[in-house]
Batch of 4 targets.
Target 1
Amino acid sequence: MKIKIGVSNKRAYIWNVWDIARLRVEYHISGILVGTLPGIQQQNVFLGPPLLLLPEEAWVLVEQGVAQFVDLNDARLPTNDEINHYHQHKLHQIELEAQETKARNSKEPVLSDKDVQRRQQKREERAAAKSKAGFMFETDSTFTQSSPIPVDEKKSRLPNTFTITVPATSEYTFDNDNLIYSDLDSARSANVWTYPETPLELNKCRVFKDLWQRGMFMGDGIRFGGHLLVYPGDPLRYHSHFTVTVLESMSSSIKPIDIVALGRLGTTVKKVHLLASYNDKTNKVDYISLEWAGFGT
């Protein structure tokens, strides 16, 4: 089943929490969580769904057939009747699960009366042995020994609580399927998703795809002076190794001062800065790495 990417004002969002986990585990797409948590709204340190995707991430997912675009601008909010029907359906499912759990537990073998009496007798013998081996107190002592509370064996064998799994997912509300676009051309013709629009943006998508196919995780590289930030694995476990600046073509001119700045910046933040562009002759992405040698300066 394809993952649904909600598009609103040319931005790509993932709302389903299972899709967010699936993208991270199976397709090494991390994105950025931008939603506030219902319990602690007055903070922006720990965020939740939706997941905001980079334009390149959304492009490669749809181009590879993993996901499809959904036009959220024409989607509607559910009515009160639909919300009530949804909650009634969920409550009905929870009740059915509780009944099934109770039925499974009731099928456990029931002890006979003789077995129950035998267990009760052994319990009393152990309690008597403990009382003889313990300390002896005077009758006026502040310590008193309470008799054991009788236990109903039949009731004790039945669980008092049930564990019910309630899904924390949300679905879109559609009146028809005309809001779903499974390829880039149909989304572009409907003016739902128009990225990339320039040769530079197209090259950024091609470079992203090449690194993504190599198993890399990517993030926004603006904090480190590039277009992309490249991680060898999940960003929660690894530091980024590369920053990437994408050129419109390998013949694009670049000033020497910019080369020095990018090389020094990459070395300062302990990363290798890459210049990348798509080669139309070889149909491959070419990379040039910049590392500041220093030579004592």
Target 2
Amino acid sequence: MDCSICTTMPSILRPPRNTICGSCYEGARTTIALLKKLEGSKEDRHDKSNHNSTINNGSSISSSPLFSCEPQPLEKVIKWMKNMKETEEEQKKRIVFLSSFVSGFKEQLHADILLKPGDDGPPIPAHRALLASKSEIFKNILDSDGCKTAPEYAITLQELNSEQLQALLEFLYTGTLASDKLEKHVYALFIAADKYMIHYLQELCEQYMLSSLDISSVLNVLDVSDLGSSKTLKEACVGFVVRNMDDVVFSDKYEPFSQKNQHLCVEITRAFLMETRSKRRD
């Protein structure tokens, strides 16, 4: 039985009956249930209809069944669901179209610059235009006279090894990064993003570190935050240490951390004393 909503069969070949599959039926039933919940009294519906906003093309937002408080016939709901499906397909096509630039990176199509990692690994071809558009620092480097005149010019990123550099370029070309790669390289990517002013990547790394902050990771994150320019991340780490002072200070990581970062230990001590003083006053 072909579904009149999700079928791929041309309309001229469909049987003369209005049939839908189980999935579409459940979706329609859920939508209808939602519409019933949105129904209010007639007075409320009348008041709200007078305040319906209109979009740029002049059509009312209430044209969507989900935004209307009036009961909607099944035919209108089905039409809306078809429109939503067409919109989804359009978005998929757009994503596929934009992903062609990613293929250019993977296949090294017309690459015109080399990026070298700091571990003497092989250079990775990239595109000047993309690097300049994603980072003001890269733009300044590529605008330099030495970079313009040398066709085999390579930019060395000393702070990244080969795997980390590959992850950085993957993010620059796609705007995203697999969770396992982000977890593995988050510290190095955060430092690189801060250095080369790749703000979106810096925010992504910062959010990941804050969301996964715990006893075992807080000192590492605090160390990394001290190398960057994010005050929010550093203050969050110091606050976390103060709130969990016993667990952090008596952990195996604290002694080597304190030997390497004496100034951070001073900040932690001062923050702890200020917190203690504040509690006494209260």
Target 3
Amino acid sequence: MTSTIVSRGASVTSCTPSSSPIGGGVAVVLAPQRHRLPEPSIRVPDPRARSACPAVSSGERPCGWPRNVWRVQSTRIVIADDSALVRAGVEAMLASAGSCERDAAADGGPPPVEVCGRASSLDELYDVVERVGPDVVVTDIRMPPRHDDEGIAAAIRLRQSHPDLGVVVLSQYADPAYLQRLLAGGSSGRGYLLKDRLATPGELVTAIELVRRGGSFVDPTVVEQLVARQRVEASSPLTRLTARETEILAAIATGKSNAAIGEQLFIGQRAVEKHINAIFAKLDLHEDPDANRRVRAVLLFLRAGVPD
């Protein structure tokens, strides 16, 4: 770890990160003093090594550290939600957690969080990010203008425009499809947290810290849903179907006749019948006078939730 030596006999007037290409330490300006006696030095850590540096506030500092030599930089947050009540609640929660984090920072823990911007819509979020340059965005999954999946759309766009910016999406949906879209461009710096977890402030703070450092955070409930879905899909007979057969089965599920399916896919009716027979065989739907194989195939398709 790069360090700077500060003599005890000198008074520190300022402390800023060094721009020198050689080091990466702390640029410390010393006020000249007369008759300064040589004394043991104090080693000040590199300001970029946040996790190794104590947070020093005015009038309160860890034992052995000079006053005002170091103050750890906060994690700057932008909160995006169309509900002013939710924004205020998340901000209050982070403020409460931040007081605990300041104590933890003194022991080498993560830096405290600071809310530096707020947004109530997707467009406003983009404007605030450009204006204040946060470290992490905490956004609701649905906001104006469409109330669809604006939070995920923001995460995707911000990965291109601000690749170092972390994004935590708050959602009430445990559907793994949202998570898969969020992480489609990579998992680094992205988090997905269910709003139920906000009852425990530490969950959100953990997610923020992980994405700020380029990691990822996924709500455990969503992970369980994803694993369960993959287990079902792996054991489903639908995995035996070809892409064309799956396409035809999806058309059957919409109520189309063989002739209509042939017109839709630009193939002959006999080809459609051949594919349907292959579907029945692969799904183990044998001739049964008491059941319609076509209906049973559709039920299998719908239960598996295969996208059309």
Target 4
Amino acid sequence: MSELVDSIERFIGAISKAGRYSDNSIRAFHQDLIILERFLSERGGVAGWEDVDDSTARAFPARLFQRGHSPRSIGRMLSSCRKFFDYLINEDTVKSNPFTGISAPKVAQKLPHTLSVDDLNTLLDENIDAGTSMNIVRDRAIIELFYSSGLRLSELASLDINTIDFAENQIRVIGKGNKERIVPVGAMARTAVKDWLERRGEYANPEERALFVNFRGGRLSVRGIQSRLTEWARRKGFSQHVHPHALRHSFASHLLESSGDLRAVQEMLGHSDISKTQIYTHLDFQHLATVFDRAHPRA
């Protein structure tokens, strides 16, 4: 193993042990740094990390852009490089961080896709009775919970049966960076989850703690949830793909439109930076602009 790769593996081991990052984030760090190592090997002239200077660091995002990487993915890779070199500084491997101040190409802000209230009513309108299949009862609870509480896909997949508090009408969520937050759960979602819990015991393995389980009795996976939502939307007559994140975006947009409370929406979404939440103010302005164009006599 080369010195460069060996340092990467030690870094990955260190952040894994620290427990500050999710498994997905750790895999992304590893992937990004291996791409950096390959770039340095192709470029030549770098025997160790101390040989990476400002010029080499600036050439890295330029090469990535030439190879078709998006500005967003380049930005993530540069962030990984900065964190890695901060680690190397602490380990006395290098004296400075050559990636400090280097940014990715600008990316145009893409507004998230949301569903209208009417579309959501169509999506969620489902009569449940004793003869309703297990899949329908479970999937309705999943979709209601997505929209009611604005959960990320990974957050919903990781829910256990003890994370929802019906007495307080709230749910405990472990989000990015293993940060815990408490999110309200609406009446319709609570009813849907209770309906599911009445049936869950027929399918779940005895020791399984997952709130949502598959037909084998184990935890329903992220991919499984995506597949079930796709099938549900198709059955409801939707021509466009309905991704779980569209339900989270719809939650945020509709809540902000009704309340105007950006800070509250930020907390419920689990955003560490309010600038991530502010994108929903652009959606709200789009709605207002549409109303103005349609209704104002001088528009």
